[in-house]
Write a structure and sequence with these properties.
The complex is a heterodimer of chains A (456) and B (295). Chain A has helices at residues 2-19, 37-41, 56-68, 82-91, 109-115, 123-127, 137-140, 175-180, 189-199, 217-237, 247-261, 274-282, 295-298, 342-352, 355-365, 374-378, 384-390, 416-428, 434-455, and strands at 26-27, 43-49, 73-79, 98-100, 161-174, 204-207, 286-292, 310-313, 324-334, 398-401. With 456 residues, chain A is an alpha/beta fold. In chain A, strands 1, 2, 3, 4, 5, 6, 7, 8, 9 and 10 form a 10-stranded mixed beta sheet that branches. Chain A is globular and about 65 Å long. Chain A starts with a helix and ends with a helix. With 295 residues, chain B is mainly alpha-helical. Chain B has a domain at 62-122 and 162-294: MetI-like (MetI-like fold, Orthogonal Bundle). Chain B has 12 helices and no strands. In chain B, helix 5 (117-127) packs across helix 7 (158-183). Chain B is globular and about 70 Å long. Classes of the chains: A alpha/beta (456), B mainly alpha (295). The interface between A and B is large, with 39 and 34 residues.
C-alpha cells in the first residue's frame, strides 16, 4: 500500500513537471465578445522580441492603445525567442500583423524577410500625419534614419522598417574616475595610447565583449569614417573591391591591433562574454569599454566601484580636427506583407511615435525613441547619466553614423558581421596580421559580389 | 500451442510506429530532399529551386565548413577514446576494488550526465573564466602562473576546453554501462586469476577488456554520436564558435547557416554529411570490435 502511495505521488510530480513547460506568452485583454464580422477588423496580432528593455513598456502601450481605440483587441506575444515562435507561422501563411525585431538578431528572421521581400511597404505611414495630427510623421523622426538601409533596405526610397529606438554607441567610462584623477578623455589615437600609459599601473585602458567581437563595430566604423570619410564607408557598404584593403583602413586596423600588442587591452578580454567584460570595467579593471546607452539599465544590478557614474566619449580619431563619428544603433518595427490587418497595424505604428508612448518607453526602459523630441520628452524618466550619454551628439564636431550595408542576396552563405569581426579576435591574440585581416574581408566581399551578380 | 495475438501486437505497436514515422522518418526524408534545393527560411521545399549537388559542391570549398569538419574530427578522435577508457577504468575499480563508498562514487560520477547540458556549459565557462575561474586560480596556487591564459579565448585551447567538459559529462554514463557489463563476468574468473598471481592491472587488460569487447564497441559508437551532438551545445554556450571559428563544430555551423543566415538547403546538406560521417564511423567501429566475436 505504501509503495502505491509513493508511486502515485511520483506520477503526480512528473505530471506537474510537464506543466513547467507552460509559460506566460499571451498577454492582452480578451474583453471583446463580438465574434463575426467585427472581430477581424478589430483584432491586432503583434509579436515582440523581449530583449534588454523588458516587457513593461509593451504591456503599457498595448493597454493605452486599446483604451484609446474602442473595440480593438491587441493579442501580444512577447518572448526572447519570438523569432522561433513566429517563423513557422509566417511560413504557413499566418503571419502576425506587427513585429518588433531587429535585422541584427542572431535568428536572422528579419534578414530573411528582407531577402525574400516579405515586408509591407510603409512609406505611406511616414508621408502621412503623425498620431497627434500635428504634422507629417517623417518630420518627427530623427534625421538620417529613414533614408538609411536600416529603414529602406533596398535603397529605393521605400520604407519597409520603422525605427524603434536609437542611441549612440561609443566609449563608456567612469566619469568619477576620470574627474577624480584629473584625466581627460582622448581626442586622438595618440592621446588614447598616452592615456593608457598614464593609468597603466592602476588599470587597463580598454576592454570589449571578447567572445562577441561584433561589438567592436562601435569602434571600427566610426574610426574608418573619421579617418577616410563617408565615401570610404559607402564603398564598404557596397562591398566594393579595395574598399577594405587600402592604406587608410589598414591604419585604423593597426591602431585597433595596437590596443592588444601595446598591452592596453585588459588581460583575458578575448575569453570574456559581454556580462563579464562589462562588469570587469565597472569594477575598475579597465578605463573604457565599447557599448551603447543600454548598458546602465542592463547592468543595473551589477556591482561597481565606489562612485561609479556612466559617461560616454567618442572614438579616437587620427587628427583632433577630424569629424568625430558616432555609430547609431537602430532597433526596428515591421509589418509582414501578408499581415491580415495591415491598416490597424499601421495605426498602431503611428501610435507608437506619440508622446505618451515615448514617455512610457523612457519610464519603463530608460531609453529614448527615435524621434527628434524623444530625448527631451524622456528627460524626466532617464537617469542623469543616461540623459547625458544621449547628449554626446551635442559635443563639438560630431556626426551620426548609420551603417548602410547593401542587402545580401538570397542564398548568400556569408554573414557580413562575422566576416569582418571574427578575425579581430585572432588579431588581438597575435595570430593574424592586420594585412591578413583585410585580405580575408576582401575575399568575403568578392564572394558577396559574385553572389549578388549571380542573383541578378 | 498458444495462439499469437497478432492483432493485439499490431495495435500496441501502431502508435509508436506512427509517431516514429511522422516525427523521425518523414522529417529525415524531408531534410535529405531539402539538401538538394536552395531553400531559405521563407521559401522551403517546393517553393525553392532544385539545385542537385550545388550545396555539396559549395560545402567542400567552404573554408568555414572545412574548419568545422576538422574540429569535429579532432574531437571525435580524442573524446570517445578517453571517455570510454576512463569509464572502463572507473567501472573496474568500482566493481573489483574494495572501496566502501562504492554507491556514493557511482552516484557522483553519474550525476554530470543527468544535468542539463546547458548548465554544464555555463559551469565550465566559469571554470575557464580568465579572471574569476578556479582553473587559473589553482594554477596560481600551485605556482604554475605562467600557464594561466584566457582558455576560452585562445584558439589553441578553446576546442580542448570543450573536450574536457564533454568528457566530464559523459564518463559516468558509460561507466554505469560498463559496470553492468562487468557484473556479467563471473567472479570465479577474477578469483582464479588472482590465485594465479595476476594483479589489478593484469586483470583489467587480460580479463575485463577482452570479455567486454562488445560492450566497449557499443559504448564507443554511442560516445562518437554523443560527441557530434553534444559538442554543438557546449561550443555554442562556452565559446560561441571560438576565437574566429577555432572551436566551431559541424552541427554549430549547420545551425549558423540554417538559423542565422536562413539557408535551410545548405544547412541540410551539412546535416546530411554529418549523418554520413556518423554512420560510416559507427559501422567501422562495430566491425572492428565484432571481429573477435565472430572468429
Amino acid at each position: 500500500m505504501k509503495k502505491r502511495i509513493v508511486a502515485g505521488l511520483l506520477i503526480l510530480c512528473m505530471g506537474f513537471g510537464l506543466l513547467g513547460g507552460c509559460s506566460k506568452e499571451d498577454t492582452g485583454s480578451n474583453g471583446d465578445g463580438n465574434a463575426g464580422s467585427q472581430a477581424t477588423d478589430q483584432e491586432l496580432n503583434i509579436a515582440i522580441f523581449q530583449g534588454g528593455y523588458g516587457e513593461e513598456y509593451w504591456e503599457k502601450v498595448v493597454k493605452l492603445f486599446e483604451e484609446s481605440h474602442e473595440g480593438v483587441t491587441v493579442n501580444m506575444e512577447i518572448s526572447p525567442t519570438i523569432a522561433d515562435i513566429i517563423r513557422p507561422r509566417i511560413v504557413a501563411g499566418n503571419a502576425p500583423d506587427f513585429i518588433a525585431l531587429n535585422d541584427t538578431q542572431e535568428d536572422g528572421l528579419i534578414l530573411s524577410l528582407i531577402k525574400d521581400r516579405g515586408l509591407l511597404d510603409i512609406t505611406d505611414v511616414f508621408d502621412g500625419e503623425n498620431y497627434a495630427g500635428t504634422g507629417i510623421l517623417r518630420d518627427d523622426i530623427k534625421e538620417g534614419l529613414l533614408e538609411s538601409t536600416k529603414c529602406e533596405p533596398y535603397a529605393d526610397g521605400k520604407i519597409y522598417l520603422a525605427p524603434f529606438n536609437t542611441g549612440p554607441q561609443g566609449l563608456i567610462y567612469n566619469k568619477t574616475y576620470v574627474s577624480d584623477n584629473g584625466l581627460e578623455t582622448a581626442a586622438t589615437w595618440d592621446d588614447f595610447f598616452a592615456l593608457g600609459d598614464q593609468i597603466k599601473d592602476d588599470r587597463a585602458l580598454f576592454t570589449y565583449q571578447g567572445i562577441y567581437p561584433g561589438y567592436m563595430e562601435e569602434m571600427l566604423w566610426p574610426a574608418i569614417a573619421s579617418s577616410a570619410g563617408m565615401e570610404a564607408i559607402e564603398k564598404i557598404c557596397r562591398y566594393e573591391e579595395g574598399s577594405f584593403d587600402n592604406p587608410e583602413v589598414l591604419e585604423v586596423l593597426r591602431n585597433i591591433e595596437k590596443i592588444s600588442s601595446g598591452g592596453y587591452l585588459l588581460e583575458g578580454t578575448v575569453g570574456m562574454d559581454h556580462t563579464e567584460s562589462q562588469s570587469e570595467m565597472m569594477l575598475g579593471k579597465s578605463a573604457f569599454i565599447t557599448n551603447g546607452v543600454w548598458m546602465e539599465n542592463e547592468m543595473a544590478d551589477a556591482p561597481r566601484e565606489e562612485g561609479f557614474e556612466f559617461a560616454m566619449a567618442t572614438m579616437p580619431t587620427n587628427d583632433e580636427n577630424d569629424v568625430r563619428y558616432i555609430l547609431d544603433s537602430c532597433e526596428q518595427f515591421s509589418i509582414p506583407a501578408d499581415a491580415k490587418n495591415p491598416e490597424l497595424a499601421k495605426e498602431f505604428l503611428r501610435f507608437l511615435y506619440s508622446d505618451e508612448s515615448v514617455k512610457a518607453f523612457a519610464e519603463a526602459s530608460g531609453a529614448v525613441f527615435a524621434t527628434k523630441t524623444g530625448r527631451e520628452i524622456s528627460k524626466d524618466y532617464l537617469s542623469e547619466s543616461t540623459y547625458n550619454m544621449y547628449g554626446v551628439y551635442d559635443e563639438e564636431n560630431t556626426a551620426s553614423l548609420i551603417m548602410n550595408f547593401e542587402a545580401l542576396p538570397d542564398n548568400c552563405k556569408l554573414n557580413v558581421s562575422d566576416e569582418v569581426f571574427n578575425p579581430l579576435t585572432s588579431v588581438m591574440n597575435g595570430e593574424m596580421t592586420v594585412e591578413e585581416w583585410a585580405e580575408s574581408v576582401e575575399s568575403a566581399f568578392a564572394q558577396i559580389r559574385a553572389d549578388i551578380e549571380a542573383a541578378e | 500451442m498458444t495462439k499469437k495475438p497478432k492483432l493485439f501486437i499490431i495495435l500496441c505497436a501502431a502508435p509508436a510506429l506512427l509517431l516514429t514515422l511522422i516525427f523521425m522518418l518523414l522529417p529525415m526524408l524531408n531534410a535529405i530532399y531539402l539538401s538538394f534545393t536552395s531553400s531559405t527560411a521563407l521559401k522551403i521545399g517546393f517553393d525553392s529551386k532544385f539545385i542537385f549537388f550545388d550545396n555539396y559542391k559549395y560545402m567542400f570549398q567552404d573554408p568555414y565548413f572545412i574548419q568545422a569538419l576538422v574540429n569535429t574530427l579532432k574531437l571525435m578522435a580524442v573524446v570517445p577514446v578517453i571517455t570510454v577508457f576512463c569509464g572502463l577504468v572507473f567501472a573496474f575499480i568500482l566493481t573489483q576494488g574494495r572501496l566502501r563508498e562504492k554507491r556514493f562514487y557511482r552516484t557522483v560520477f553519474f550525476l554530470p550526465s543527468v544535468i542539463s547540458l546547458t548548465v554544464v556549459g555555463i559551469v565550465w565557462s566559469f571554470v575557464f573564466n580568465p579572471n574569476k575561474g578556479i582553473l587559473n586560480h589553482l594554477l596560481e596556487i600551485i605556482g604554475l602562473e605562467s600557464m594561466k591564459r584566457p582558455w576560452l579565448g585562445d584558439s589553441k585551447t578553446a576546442l580542448w576546453c570543450i573536450a574536457a567538459a564533454l568528457i566530464w559529462q559523459s564518463v559516468g554514463y558509460y561507466m554505469v554501462m560498463h559496470v553492468a557489463a562487468i557484473d556479467g563476468i563471473s567472479q570465479d574468473v577474477y578469483e582464479s586469476a588472482a590465485i594465479d598471481g595476476a594483479n589489478g592491472f593484469q586483470q583489467f587488460f587480460g580479463i575485463t577488456v577482452p570479455l567486454l569487447r562488445n560492450s566497449i564497441g557499443i559504448t564507443y559508437v554511442l560516445a562518437l554520436s554523443g560527441t557530434i551532438n553534444l559538442s554543438f551545445t557546449l561550443s555554442n554556450i562556452m565559446t560561441a564558435g571560438g576565437p574566429n571559428g577555432a572551436s566551431s563544430v559541424l552541427l554549430q555551423y549547420m545551425y549558423t547557416q540554417g538559423m542565422r543566415n536562413a539557408n535551410f538547403g545548405y544547412a541540410m546538406a551539412i546535416a546530411m554529411f554529418t549523418l554520413l560521417i556518423a554512420i560510416v564511423l559507427a559501422v567501422l567501429s562495430r566491425k572492428i570490435t565484432n571481429k573477435e566475436d565472430r572468429s
